[in-house]
Amino acid sequence: CGVFGVIGVTDAANFVALGLHALQHRGQEAGGIVAHDAEQGFNSAHRFGYVRDNFTKQSLMETLPGSLAIGHVRYSTAGTKAATAIRDVQPFFGEFAMGGCALAHNGNITNAMALRRELIERGSIFQSSSDSECIIHLMARSIQRNIPERMKDALRRVEGAFSVIAMTRTKLIGVRDPLGVRPLVLGRIGDEGFVLASETCALDIIGAEFLREIEPGEMVVISKGEIESSRPFGPSTGRFCIFEHVYFSRPDSIIGGRSVYETRRQIGVELAREAPVEADLVCPVPDSGTPAAIGYAHESGIPFGMGIIRNQYMGRTFIEPTEQIRNMGVRLKLNVNRALVKGKRVVLVDDSVVRGTTSRKIKDMILDAGAAEVHFRIASPPTAWPCFYGVDTPDREKLLAAQMSEEEMREWIGVDSLAFVSLDGLYRAVGEARGRNSACPQYCDACFSGEYPVAPFDQLERGFRM
Ligand code: 5GP
Ligand code: SF4
Ligand code: MG
Q1: Binding site: what residues are annotated?
Q2: Same domain, 426 and 346
Q3: DSSP secondary-structure letter at 396?
Q4: Same domain, yes or no, for 20 and 129?
Q5: Are 220 and 229 in contact (CB under 8 A)?
Q6: Same domain assignment for residues 170 and 269
Q7: Closest C-alpha to ligand 2, atom 4
Q8: Same domain for 273 and 177
Q9: Ligand nearest to the CA of 318
Q10: Do 177 and 295 have their domain in common?
Q11: Is 107 part of a structural domain of the chain?
């Protein structure tokens, strides 16, 4: 999911709409905005579909006045696989004795089932099936006298990944979980405006200046042009999601002081060093494989070419929630550039192999078009474990790398050779010159290593075995 909030500007909701549009790649199912105006109080709108199809209508935007607003773009992840209902669409809202609070969450709470059970037993009435709603109910039960303190109380009980943006009548609040698994950045706009957003690309679109990242375990409370920072969870070291670098974030965002594009290009360089091959053409699976393919071509000296063309009017396939739509998606979205690949030995570069179904179809299309050989190169290690921190990977049984060896995968996909970048190679590409520190890994890489930095409590209860 993607979150965005702004304070201290006129018509804040319009800025939020733009910010969410820039974060649309993080969630395409639905979006919502809550705004606060001194006279008209809180107003909200929640809609299915793209930001541009909903939050561009003047008639709707006029209902969201005020100088403070937050928003959310959603895609459903582990635990909430059922079709999204409009009541699952964030931001969520709670009315407390000291006033209202709206809240938007990116990530996944790993003890949500246990919390929900406990809260329901004690009288909470849930409105949605979302794990994020727990936070509002925990806040309602806190005895603290102001909303930021209530949020701290609530979040201390929550395990897992959360980058949360919240707002009261006068404050914009941002928090990251102690490991800082999901991103959250702070920006400045105009004379006294501040912005919180999942990624820096959402600051760029509104012309905001990037100030810094919210740190893992940090809470910021912004009001009247001032920022108050605190550390509600005590000291901690971050374990940022390494897959944000590989796939999830937009390539024009800056994470940890590094360009995501440059990191992806560097993964391709590592791949070319680790898994060279004699070939005539390096070709990305667009768009997710493109920067790595550029790096591979540059390092290997093999010419780069767009052997697969993407229809720009399709979204990201993996974010479509059902398998059937995802399967159709491949053909609707990608087509082979026959004239280019015919007779060539092709190095095909993609960001990841998950189920392997896309990969197999793309290979078929390339061979049908007359390619002489297909060598598949993957810009991440084999995805052998599901993510429980906010990226929608399927159950372990459906992950190709959980079922097969690399040679079996090569045969099943049907390519002449298959290679994945090593975990160390990936760490080098994100700027860790000495690779992965296995005693104390610098990132979360559980989907590749199986080392979960926070126990996936709900999943263990459901029978998942680490
Ligand atoms: P596959 O060959 O595993 O079906 O699909 C791999 C391609 O689709 C990659 O380009 C990857 O970006 C995307 N993809 C498909 N399904 C998923 C999924 O469930 N999770 C993730 N992270 N990526 C996926
Ligand atoms: Fe990111 Fe993978 Fe960790 Fe999930 S398991 S947070 S996708 S690195
Ligand atoms: Mg892809």
Answers
A1: 241, 288, 350-351, 387, 444, 447
A2: yes
A3: G
A4: yes
A5: yes
A6: no
A7: 387
A8: no
A9: 1
A10: no
A11: yes
403 Cβ inside 6 Å of ligand 1: no
In the predicted structure, residue 316 carries a pLDDT above the cut 80: no
Single out the residue in 238, 272, 294 at which a domain terminates. 238
Query: 447 CB under 6 A from ligand 2?
Result: yes
Show the DSSP H helices in 233-289 as ranges: 242-243, 260-274
Numbered residues of the known binding site for Mg(2+)? 288, 350-351
Do 234 and 282 fall within a single domain?
no
Residue 346: burial class (beta carbons within 10 Å; 0-12, 13-18, 19+): buried
376 lines ligand 1 (CB under 6 A): no
CATH number of the CATH domain containing 404: 3.40.50.2020
For a pocket test of ligand 1, which of 246, 308, 352, 391 has the largest count of ligand atoms closer than 8 A to its C-beta?
352
Q: Which atom of ligand 1 lies closest to the CA of 243?
A: 22
Q: Which amino acid belongs to residue 188?
A: R
Centre of ligand 1 from the C-alpha of residue 193, in Å: 38
User: Which residue intervals of 95-208 are DSSP H helices?
Assistant: 112-121, 133-141, 147-156, 201-204
Does residue 321 register a pLDDT over 90? Answer: no
C-alpha to C-alpha distance for 371 and 357, rounded to whole angstroms: 20
Question: What residue owns the CA closest to ligand 1's atom 6?
Answer: 353
For the stretch 146-161, pLDDT in tens is 999 999 999 999 999 9
Q: Closest Cα to atom 2, ligand 2: which residue?
A: 447
Number of domains in the chain: 2
346, 280 Cβ separation under 8 angstroms = yes
The CATH number of whichever domain residue 102 belongs to comes to 3.60.20.10
Are 303 and 181 members of one domain?
A: no
Look at residue 253 and tell me if it is in a domain: no
Return the higher-pLDDT residue of 266 and 312: 266
Instruction: Determine, yes or no, domain membership for 458.
Output: no
134 is catalytic: no
Indicate the top mutation candidate among 28, 81, 244, 318 to test ligand 1's pocket, ranked by most ligand atoms within 8 A of CB.
Answer: 318
Does the structure show a pLDDT above 90 at 212?
A: yes
**Cis-peptide into 91, omega within 30 deg:** yes
* Residue 8 pLDDT greater than 50, yes or no: yes
Mutate to test the pocket of ligand 2, among 162, 176, 177, 242 (most ligand atoms within 8 A of CB): 242
The verdict on residue 362 lying in a domain is yes
- Would you state the structure tokens that stand for residue 369, as one six-digit string? 């078009």
Q: ipTM of this predicted complex? A: 0.93
**What is the Cα Rg of the chain in Å?**
22
User: Could you identify the atom of ligand 2 that is nearest to the CA of residue 386?
Assistant: 5
**274 and 213 assigned to the same domain:** no
Query: 434 lies in which domain range?
Result: 263-440
pLDDT in tens, 23-47: 999 999 999 999 999 999 999 999 9
CA atoms of 393 and 266, how far apart (whole Å):
24
